[in-house]
Amino acid sequence: MVSVVSAEHRVNAERAIEQESVLDALLREREGLLGTLDRVVALHGTARLIRDTIGVDAAFIADLDNSDRAVIRWLAGNKTNSLQNLAVPRGQGVGGTVLALGRPMQVSDYVQSSAITHQFDEQVSGEGISAILAVPIIDPFASKIVAVAYAAMRTSARFGDDAVGRMETIASQAAKALHVAGQVESTRDRAVSAERQRMQANLHDSVGAMLFSIGAQVRDLHTAVTDNPGLTTRLTRLEQEVSAASIALRESLLALSESTPERALPVELAEHCRSFEARSGVPARFVQLGDLRPLDAERTSLLVSVVREGLLNVEKHTQAYYVVVSLSATDDGVQVVVADDGRPDPTDEPVMSCGMGVRALSERAARLGGRVSLVRDEDGGTTLRAWLPGVEKRATA
């Protein structure tokens, strides 16, 4: 009997150890995934990875805060804070030269090098650094530099081809991690914005309507009561409190609606697709292709109007089975497309090709330097397309 129990205990113990090992592996995978999805963790981890992989004394990452300047924010192996938050403009020092040229650069003795400018000699010397290798971290999808990675030695040295190659590999991995982190952040922001809009609508429809009803009833009572000073005073106070509550509600709704236009646009277009699908029964999907440049309110409003008009045309004039709304950034602007697979009624052809709504949108787009077109596809569907130049292009025109 004892041997049976002992055997059972051994099996349970082995199973517990096995399960613990699986759990540890899952936790490590979770930590790795969270590191990839978080920009700060990814960049800080890249600095540590450079130091450990290349075998250098220190490593640091400069994040771009605009296209012409990087700021050193993440360090590994540093002894002082002399480089922390150091702003490096394009063309200055090693990192600024990498920004300007878009390729790796190294110096064996920073302070003595004639290949760079020397605005940062004091900070570099303060950290005791001599040799530096810097490579650009380039977003593979946008083909632009998003950060600069540095490897540093405290003695004069030259980095060989193998070290440069490993640095470029690490930079490539970091670029992919940053892209994923950016997509996750964008998705999270859109989800938050959508939730804010839902809350705003609920508050407006419920609390706003309730306050309006209470206020109307109080005003009616106030008008009807003429011979009761005490009640009149209380009604006056209640009317003032309802008015104050209404003002506070309007301020709350305004705060909930605050969002940058380029973030609000995808959320609003997705909402229009959901609304169209709910009332028509036709599946409508919204797809965003890439990140958007900043848009002003006028462009945002026009693009929303184009999608609204396109969905209305589908609802009124076609027998569509599916609708896709896409929003994408182009090299010189932004465009939206509303495409369906329906077959318009031949009697609606004049309406579909040159309706008042489409003509009005075309005129608005033309004033901004853009264009709107509505065409029938070869397979019988229709496509409404609007393109607008970017804000920067229009400003320099």
UniProtKB/TrEMBL annotation:
Keywords: Kinase, Transferase, Two-component regulatory system. Residues 38-188 form the GAF domain. Coiled coil: none annotated. It comes from the Bacteria. PANTHER family: NITRATE/NITRITE SENSOR PROTEIN NARX-RELATED, OXYGEN SENSOR HISTIDINE KINASE NREB. It comes from Actinokineospora alba. Pfam families: GAF (PF01590), HATPase_c (PF02518), HisKA_3 (PF07730). One of its GO terms (cellular component) is membrane. The keyword Kinase applies. This is Signal transduction histidine kinase. InterPro entries: GAF, GAF-like_dom_sf, HATPase_C_sf, HATPase_dom, Sensor_HK_TwoCompSys, Sig_transdc_His_kin_sub3_dim/P.
